[in-house]
Amino acid sequence: MDMRAPAAADAATPRDGRRLPVGGWELALTALLVAVVAGFGAAAPGFYAGPASLLGLTENFLPFGLVALGLSLVILTGGIDLSVGAVASLSAVLAAQLWSRFGVDIWAASALGVAIGALLGLLNAAVILRLGIEPLIATLGTSFLYGSAAVAAAGAAPPSGFPASFTAVGTGTLGSLGPLAGLVPIQLALFAALAVLFSALVARSPFGRVLVMVGYSPDAARYSGIRTGRVLATAYAVSGAMASLAGLVLASYYDAVRPDMGDVLLLTAITMVVLGGISIFGGEGTVAGVVVSVLVLGFLRQGMLIAGFSDMVTTMLTGAILLASIAAKNLFNRRGTGLANQIWATIRRPEPPRANPN
Amino acid sequence: MSAAAARPAADPRPGWRDRRELVLVAVTAASAGAVGIVNPGFLTVENLRFVALNSVVLSIVALGQTLVIAMRGIDLSVAPLMGLSAMVCGLLAQTHGLPLWGAVGVALAIGLALGTLNGVLVAALNIPPIITTLGTYSLFGGLTFLYSDGTQVDQVPPAYAAFGNAGPLGLPVPTPVLVLLLVTAACWFALGHSRFGRAVLAVGNNAAAAYNAGLRVAVIRIQVYALSGLLACLGGLVFVCYTGSATVTTGTGDHVELQSIAVALVGGTLIAGGRANVLGTVLASLFLSTVLTALVFLQVPPIWYSAGEGLMILVAVRGGTRRAAGRA
Amino acid sequence: MSAQRDADSAMPGFYAAQGIRKSYGAIQVLKGISLDLKPGRMVTIMGENGAGKSTLFKILAGQVPPTGGTLRLAGAPVALASPSAAHARGIYLVPQEPALLPELSVAETMFVGALPTRGGPLGRRVDWAAMRARARAALDALELPIDVDRPARTLSIAQQQQVECAKALLRGCRIILFDEPTSPLTSHEVEHLFSIMRRLKADGCTLSFISHRMDEVLEISDEIAVLRDGVLVDVVARPSFDRARLLSRMVGRPLKAVPRRAASNARDEVALEVRGLSDGLRFADVGFSLRRGEVLGLAGLVGAGRTEIAETVFGVRPAAAGEVRLGGAVVTGLDCHAMIRRGLVYVPEDRARHGAVLPMTITENVTSGLLDRVRRRAGLLSARDEARISAAAVRDFRVRCAGLDQPLRELSGGNQQKVVFAKWMTTGPRVAILDEPTRGVDVGAKEDIYEMIDAMARDGMALLVISSESEELVRLCDRILSIYEGRVVAELSGADISPAAVARSYLTAAAPSGGVAA
């Protein structure tokens, strides 16, 4: 309690008021990343065949990371966006059709595709804010709508065979920039740039600050003069734009579009965000954590595939890691005796009354 | 603080026993009738039987989902569980000649065990339901894959096929429909007339108040997730009998988790928990099956089918929004 | 006497607290409370906000375990592990805003956890008919015309409390505690509740309730216990009730010894003008003008509509009629974002919910009011500039903390409130509305905050202060408006201002005839 200590203010040395982008969780994830890469490098022949191939592995999972970055903003507000997969498919299909049917330049079509993604995100926000439907259900509904539209837009023979400059995004490297740059896939450069951008956005931009405030406490944000509706709309729009970007990268990677190609993105991207330490209830977490978790899950998956495990087994492990990490976090936050005792105590006394000094 | 306390007494009239069932019956009948006028083939006994049979699996799975949502939870893992059950039962029958009653036991045991796992993760480890079942979604899907080891079910013994398509003792009603009726009646009784079911609704309305009233909230949560798992696996068994096939994408490929949530909500169960409509879930599933079949008859391109589902969810939920608080 | 008490205390329905203590971390909320509740008697707990009344009730009802002390029921010590354990022993707490089960019927909410069942062909099933009949009988016994089939969400707050009373009786609970039941009720509803209470009392139930409203308390109580800062300072039995003594006990000091602010800083220029403001629900036709350097107080009972008036002026609640002018310009209907930019800020009453984001750091909270103040580098907030603003705020507002990065939730209530002040004052507002500025703040920090408010007025800021503590208004304000049921009922200024006058101005508004035993 405040006992009017003399020189109370001087005790507070004005330290740098920076919200550190890394904390214990991010460090633990980084250690896990090192262990995963080193472990597979040692144990799985073929996982490490020189730096170029190691970095090249990222091409197989970075579209998930792009979706996860956008989704991070939405989950930081305490919401969720289940439509990211459908948005990715729909905007990639539309962009491809613009290129193939209407002769729009592929880059212009891609830009339009990202804009379409942002618009679809705004539509999600409109459904949530105007109709007052919970984000989970609203985006579940729109995901069906967008998915159908993607199938319709794709037609019987979806476009493929894009210009080489476009397919380079998914599979090429920055080779033209110099010998060392040749090691870096374009996808990785894109992801790294966006990761830095999003990290700065959340940690240091005015928008990020209000985003986190809305996530922790929408009421307090409103009483602070923040127009929370605009913040939410922006978050969903960014999520849509990032999903469509991921869809375009997939189109480039496969050199084709399919109306269901975004479907695989959703569950893995949510896993990446949550494992990255962003709380599903909003407010808590950093983009840095998400970035590391993208790499952990991505390399883990690639490593296991190379080691001969099947796709499904790696997916299974992803799920197990997600559950174990959240459970560990919850148990860590709760002080007490052994694991079994804690679980038993929860079952016996399930809704502990909240301590409230007021 | 009492500041926001002066809530005027709300209108006591409608909403209480809302007529969702009647609306669904009317809409289903009207759409079937309308399609019948355009294409009389739709109204043949054969086709109507198909429509009904086609809705059974989703209905059974969605009844479990209804219980979970009524309790203010959500279960995404029903889809892979259904697939796992279909695969395990189907392969045991196909390769080891497991008798049908054995398959029933296997399906129920898998469902209970894995559903309980969901419940323990949610209730005892405090993991939010959406995260929990997202994680087990991957886990259970992986189990299916491991068990199948690259094979798939394409042929089930005649007893299974008969169970999935024909009626028992020469009855004209297919067995799956009878199973569904039984399950529906059980859920209806449980939610409407048993202490357990009312406790589930009490938890969905206000978990803290339910706890204060002496209900064992965590135990109830575990039981409900176990039941949801059980019904998902029963759905999987019916599926493998009915179609005679199961692959690693059974359940997950059709997004049964999303469909089951959709029909539960369209049926009148509140996403915020606390109110459930068992009959509504079954009727919504029947409605979905009717519409999807009708679209085939009307030669509507199948691409718009899921758009219809999406609209259905948004329209249905728009009517039933109550509290938009974060789901825990 | 003592032998008599021992004999009484063994009576069924005699519920005694002995030396009950409760601490949350370092904060001691209850410091050894001993209180007897007796069958057929209504014991009222009075006290200022934060005195520990609700905490005491929660302990009595098994919702919160005490840190120390004993509860005795009919002479025997009891330990209550949960609310349901309390119910089993016949103790029931009616919360101020009952947490019902909105989608279930009234009858079912009354029986939740103990639904009657009967045998059937399919096993035991809920006996709806019996449940409805018993629920109806319980409501009828209290002459409550409530349809038991209605969904609980359609009940008004008053009806919810009535249902809770019937529910207590249904469960065989005869020790019934009411946590501040009357503040959300209209006077007519209060009368109805009192008639129920009298009936319960006549029936031999043990009753206790919390209230702030003097006239009510004098009307219904058999004994009045005054709680102040976690200590039971007085217990008076009818007929020795004395309004002035109770008031002075509640505020803790003799009323005349209250310090009064020095000189008014009010200037001529009007900073905020409100005319005929109504929200169509909680208040109507409120008007006042506030000059630069002036401190205007809003006095009244909790629930009188003062917070609603403030929120409507600030723009977070819609106005139904009336006009708000800020520095001469009409600003009615603007949202709070626009108000803040025009120099009007609001320090809300509920700090944890509206005032601050407790998990965020001191710096983040200080700059959250107006991020435009922080310098940018390439569009990003300059960490150095933020730290500078935050350090200055911490220094100027004497915030005790371990560092600027400390999450706000780790600070004491007083320091949290200073951060909220700092957040708004560093935006350089011209008008500030302070709603219960010292709620949940300890004595030392309170005086700091008073000095800050004085300094703001000296600087020419116009201040509107809402407080439920008469002393605080007297200490701070040049002028005081008294609000009763959403209307301005009195205005005090200059030498007329005294704690007694302030308290009288709204307490007597309730019952013009003068009350029962004053």
UniProtKB/TrEMBL annotation, chain A:
Location relative to the cell: Cell membrane
Keyword check for Membrane: yes
Record's keyword terms, sorted: Cell inner membrane, Cell membrane, Membrane, Transmembrane, Transmembrane helix, Transport
One term of GO molecular function: transmembrane transporter activity
Membrane-topology descriptor: Multi-pass membrane protein
GO CC annotation terms, alphabetical: plasma membrane
Keyword Cell inner membrane among record annotations: yes
Xref: Pfam families: BPD_transp_2
Bilayer-spanning residue ranges: 27-49, 61-94, 106-129, 136-157, 177-203, 231-254, 266-297, 304-328
Description of how the protein assembles with itself and partners: The complex is composed of two ATP-binding proteins (LsrA), two transmembrane proteins (LsrC and LsrD) and a solute-binding protein (LsrB).
Function statement: Part of the ABC transporter complex LsrABCD involved in autoinducer 2 (AI-2) import. Probably responsible for the translocation of the substrate across the membrane.
Name of the protein this chain belongs to: Autoinducer 2 import system permease protein LsrD
Source organism: Lichenibacterium minor
From TrEMBL, chain B:
Residue stretches spanning the membrane: 22-42, 48-69, 76-94, 100-123, 130-148, 168-191, 224-245, 257-273, 278-297
Location of this chain's protein in the cell: Cell membrane
Keywords: Cell inner membrane, Cell membrane, Membrane, Transmembrane, Transmembrane helix, Transport
UniProt key word Acetylation: no
InterPro entries assigned to the protein according to its UniProt record, in alphabetical order: ABC_transp_permease (IPR001851)
GO cellular component: plasma membrane
Topology relative to the membrane: Multi-pass membrane protein
Primary subcellular site in the record, as a coarse category: membrane
Function: Part of the ABC transporter complex LsrABCD involved in autoinducer 2 (AI-2) import. Probably responsible for the translocation of the substrate across the membrane.
Subunit field text: The complex is composed of two ATP-binding proteins (LsrA), two transmembrane proteins (LsrC and LsrD) and a solute-binding protein (LsrB).
Name this protein carries in UniProt: Autoinducer 2 import system permease protein LsrC
TrEMBL record, chain C:
CDD domains: ABC_Carb_Monos_I, ABC_Carb_Monos_II
Chain ranges of the ABC transporter domain: 15-254, 266-510
InterPro entries: AAA+_ATPase, ABC_carbohydrate_import_ATPase, ABC_transporter-like_ATP-bd, ABC_transporter-like_CS, P-loop_NTPase
A GO term, aspect molecular function: ATP hydrolysis activity
Annotated keywords: ATP-binding, Nucleotide-binding, Repeat, Sugar transport, Transport
PROSITE patterns: ABC_TRANSPORTER_1, ABC_TRANSPORTER_2
SMART domains: AAA (SM00382)
Family per record: Belongs to the ABC transporter superfamily.
Protein name: Sugar ABC transporter ATP-binding protein
Organism per entry: Lichenibacterium minor
Lineage of source species: Bacteria, Pseudomonadati, Pseudomonadota, Alphaproteobacteria, Hyphomicrobiales
